[in-house]
Inverse folding.
């Protein structure tokens, strides 16, 4: 993303599609652009960091809103083999009463060696309509992996070649040609989307992995740049070597909207460019390794992506590669390699048998609750909740609690997602966005804000087990000692409430909290309104339990509750409600504004309960303005 955002009130966007690097060393900071005929460089100024992102989105395009179910829990692994297995995963989650919105079919839906073909293997996927109907009957959606390159022996490749739409590698379609994008969509729609899968996982959208994708030793950065970049320049041209993922996402978005305007595009893609959010696309961080250091670095990467103007981002919860030397034990079809690859470097050779990995997975998942998208994925070990134990066991219970918390916060999360489209907001952001006057907070990347109210402090170091299963401390010590979490600094200028206990803390201090596997430190800013649901199994579920509004006093508060149909593009034409909730801290009065009735809404006629400190009030929302004294 050719974007630089400063905490000094400016951002720079360089609109250039060539290869590039950013350097920050003794010679200074500079962006090296390899091929530039004419460079458009934009300098964006703003009084607040949020204004900088708004400026970036104004230049690169407003982000399209994803379907509501995309913000629920997404279960994936490398890989499910059959449609029966895929449906069985959803059925087991429903049987266990654990929340779920989407199951993902990773690569090799095709027959045999027909790599990249968008026709599924008829033996393993004999009836996609039956699969879709079974999943939808459980209110679960699906996602399928597709690739921009196709083996030469496939029907898809032959069609592309006959039409003159292949790049000169004779495998990858030319995503820069609108007609080629239409043919690619026709293949995907007929083979996978029509009465089949609901969303896309566009893998390998660079699209050339290059000659560094192998060997036991990672090459030097300059060599990787030359080798991989050389492939892109050879087939794409030097001027657009960085733009294939963007063009590919554009084709999926425009053609799906034309074919099926009633369902929003959801495209999880590996590569993109500034402004890719306008195509209903989310990015993820690729094939990471299961190490504590990787988890720590993923936190920083997520914040960098967010302030680059890309709103929808996720990661492989648990790390993609879990083992290193023990690669022959993996069951993903890649255990017959004669030597390990340089990128297989997870720290947990015994996989799920290692309690150290189970602890890392739980911490990764707990951070994932507070990311724009909440998705578990990886190889070497399966990731379904029952792989980590059974109900009543610590790792299972911690995972179940994390997933339940995501759904408990769904009204808040979807409202913030709505503000991404409506206000060009940033869901996940570094602390300098909200606390520029606190130098300790502004300089930190160990914690972040999730929406306007939640301060998230991920646990990025082991508390119980080292890799290999060695205990760090005994259970008795864990109960007796008060171990500090890393990154628990509460920004100054406001008070903070522990999300779980309700305890109130003064800002401007680093606090110590008891260690716990069940949760990570999450705090609510004083002067916040947090809408919540008591129990959801999926994002769009209609429940009979009261709608909760939690008030955290200490300052005036305002929250814009957002609701729409959850799918389709009616929101672009005003088919949504934005209901203003205001808290007057001095008078202890909550005012809920009347709905404009642009959309029937699920809140109208709903029993609601307001919690503020030790006080509770109940009412029925009718769409009219209401004042509640607490």
């Amino acid at each position: 993303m050719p974007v630089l955002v400063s905490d000094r009130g400016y951002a720079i966007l360089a609109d250039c599609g060539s290869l590039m690097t950013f350097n920050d060393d003794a010679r200074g900071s500079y962006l090296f652009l390899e091929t530039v005929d004419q460079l458009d460089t934009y300098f964006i100024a703003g009084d607040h960091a949020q204004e900088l992102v708004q400026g970036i989105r104004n230049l690169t395009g407003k982000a399209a809103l994803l379907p509501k179910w995309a913000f629920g829990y997404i279960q994936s692994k490398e890989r499910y083999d059959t449609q029966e297995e895929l449906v069985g995963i959803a059925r087991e989650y429903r049987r266990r009463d654990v929340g779920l919105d989407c199951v993902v079919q990773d690569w090799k839906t095709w027959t045999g060696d027909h790599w990249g073909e968008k026709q599924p293997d008829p033996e393993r996927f004999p009836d996609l309509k039956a699969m879709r109907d079974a999943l939808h009957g459980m209110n679960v959606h699906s996602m399928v992996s597709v690739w921009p390159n196709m083996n030469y022996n496939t029907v898809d490749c032959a069609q592309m070649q006959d039409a003159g739409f292949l790049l000169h590698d004779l495998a990858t379609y030319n995503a820069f040609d609108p007609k080629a994008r239409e043919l690619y969509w026709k293949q995907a729609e007929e083979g996978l989307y029509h009465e089949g899968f609901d969303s896309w996982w566009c893998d390998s959208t660079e699209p050339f992995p290059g000659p560094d994708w192998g060997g036991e030793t990672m090459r030097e950065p300059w060599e990787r740049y030359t080798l991989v970049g050389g492939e892109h320049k050879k087939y794409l041209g030097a001027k657009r070597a960085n733009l294939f993922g963007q063009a590919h996402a554009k084709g999926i978005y425009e053609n799906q909207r034309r074919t099926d305007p009633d369902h929003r595009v959801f495209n999880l893609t590996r590569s993109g460019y500034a402004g890719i959010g306008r195509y209903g696309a989310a990015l993820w961080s690729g094939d990471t390794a299961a190490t504590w250091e990787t988890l720590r670095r993923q936190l920083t990467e997520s914040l960098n992506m967010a302030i680059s103007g890309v709103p929808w981002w996720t990661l492989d919860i648990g790390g993609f590669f879990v083992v290193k030397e023990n690669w022959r034990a993996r069951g993903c079809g890649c255990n017959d390699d004669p030597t390990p690859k340089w990128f297989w470097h997870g720290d947990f050779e015994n996989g799920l048998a290692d309690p150290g990995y189970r602890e890392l997975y739980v911490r990764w998942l707990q951070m994932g609750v507070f990311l724009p998208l909440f998705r578990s994925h990886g190889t070497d070990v399966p990731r379904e909740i029952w792989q980590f134990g059974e109900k009543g066991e610590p790792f299972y219970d911690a995972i179940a609690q994390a997933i339940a918390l995501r759904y408990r916060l769904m009204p808040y999360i979807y409202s913030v997602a709505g503000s991404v489209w409506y206000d060009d907001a940033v869901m996940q952001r570094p602390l300098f966005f909200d606390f520029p006057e606190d130098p300790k907070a502004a300089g930190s990347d160990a914690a972040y804000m999730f929406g306007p109210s939640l301060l998230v402090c991920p646990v990025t170091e082991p508390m119980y087990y080292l890799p290999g299963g060695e205990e760090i401390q005994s259970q008795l010590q864990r109960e007796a000692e008060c171990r500090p979490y890393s990154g628990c600094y509460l920004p100054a200028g406001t008070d903070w409430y522990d999300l779980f206990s309700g305890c109130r803390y003064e800002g401007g201090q680093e606090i110590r909290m008891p260690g716990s596997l069940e949760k990570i430190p999450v705090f609510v800013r004083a002067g916040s309104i947090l809408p919540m649901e008591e129990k959801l199994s999926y994002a769009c579920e209609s429940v009979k339990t009261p709608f909760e509004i939690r008030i955290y006093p200490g300052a005036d508060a305002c929250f814009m509750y957002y609701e729409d149909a959850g799918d389709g593009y009616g929101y672009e034409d005003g088919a949504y409600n934005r209901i203003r909730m205001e808290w007057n801290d001095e008078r202890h009065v909550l005012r809920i504004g009347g709905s404009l009735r642009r959309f029937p809404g699920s809140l109208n006629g709903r029993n609601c309960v307001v919690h503020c400190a030790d006080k509770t009030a109940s009412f029925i929302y009718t769409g009219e303005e209401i004042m509640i004294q607490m």
